[in-house]
Amino acid sequence: MKHITDFKDKKVLVLGLAKSGESAARLLDKLGAIVTVNDGKPFDENPTAQSLLEDGIRVICGSHPLELLDEDFALLVKNPGIRYDNPMVARALQKGMPVWTEVELAYLISDAPIIGITGSNGKTTTTTMIAEVLNAGGQSAKLCGNIGYPASSVAQEATKEDILVMELSSFQLMGVQDFKPHIAVLTNLIPTHIDYHGSIEAYIEAKWNIQSQMGPEDVVILNFNQAESRELAVRTQATVIPFSTTEKVDGAYLEGEILCFKGEPVMTVSDIGVPGSHNVENALATIAVAKWFGIDNQAIKEALSHFGGVKHRLQYVGKINDISFYNDSKSTNILATQKALSGFDNSKVILIAGGLDRGNEFDDLIPDIQGLKKMVILGQSAERIKRAADKAGVSYVDATDIADATRKAFALSQAGDIVLLSPANASWDMYANFEVRGDLFLATVDELKEQA
Fold first, then answer.
1. Which CATH number applies to 11-100: 3.90.1150.10, 3.40.30.10, 3.40.50.720, 3.30.365.10?
2. Residue 122 annotated as binding site
3. Structure pTM?
4. Is position 438 annotated in a ligand binding site?
5. Which residues contact 53 (CB under 8 A, 6 or more apart)?
6. Is 245 annotated as a binding residue?
7. CATH of the domain spanning 315-451, picked from 2.40.160.210, 3.40.50.150, 3.90.190.20, 3.40.50.1820
8. Catalyses which reaction (predicted)?
9. Which pLDDT tens digit goes with each residue over 258-297?
């Protein structure tokens, strides 16, 4: 880690804890800053705040007093999920205070080069694929960022011989200033998180912050299946390497069933360890990174062939009586579910779908659910999904929760079928997050295995 002096004796406010907030507070304290942590959770119920206080870091819990900003803070580091119209953040910006997320700190102290991966769908899978392929090729890749390992913690341990493979959300990328990855990957762009960003244009600009400091010596890997990415390609100083499943490009592309890089066959679609057209795109982006590092084709093929997916992202769970189970709880929008379905024969799929009602209809999903064996529908959005199922000619049953849905899907299936949890909706009507929803699916499958 670089022992920088930028923060020595400067007052810094860390707003919001969780993993990234704690990591930022401890790092800033180590760098000599005078740190104050402000978290909404009451102190008595906040073991992280208690631990920080024990280590000599000032904490203010239970509320967010605006008068706190009357102190002479040089910087505010906020939790990525806190919106910019939050009163504390808005006041800080009004006062001219820089507002960062902790990935900026990670960049400033990192001895290791950074590969940054962002996009609407496929971030976590692509991030994990890249790390596994690089490690298989003899590099030392370390996962961090939005994937669950705070970047500012991992960066402290990384050396010049390592590579930080960092998943980045639009929320994190809004809070960067000098952040500069050596390689940036943009998996795809669809309208999402508009409630946070206000418009699709603002959302895309947040994502595009990933390359704002990059130059010709750096690389941006873009999905040329999308017009939006093609338009962005002319708005960067970095070297652009495209990938595409629809045409031959000067990068990574699909030719028939062969994944190629600049005219060189690398592997076949059937070699990829996880199904779905979206995973072909993820693999192409991974190949583009791997070839830049000089990884040989055999190492790429072996790593991607053994890739078993990521928990809650089209995760293969196993079989019961020759019925396969897939956990795709991370599919919180229509496009993600469309991509999940693309990897299967619909006539054998029992799809579990439904969740938070955001007011949208599901007509875009109709072509993708046609021919499904059955649907099991639940959640606030159930009536809207049923309307799409009726139009698609698909029969369905109701479920009260994920456990009930899993049991009903299993009861409706027979040998050779696939039970797929791919909700096309956020989880917040029933569950705290998609992980909780997916874990309940996994637990129920385990119960069914014991009973089989």
1. 3.40.50.720
2. yes
3. 0.79
4. no
5. 59
6. no
7. 3.90.190.20
8. UDP-N-acetyl-alpha-D-muramoyl-L-alanine + D-glutamate + ATP = UDP-N-acetyl-alpha-D-muramoyl-L-alanyl-D-glutamate + ADP + phosphate + H(+)
9. 999 999 999 999 999 888 888 999 999 999 999 999 999 9
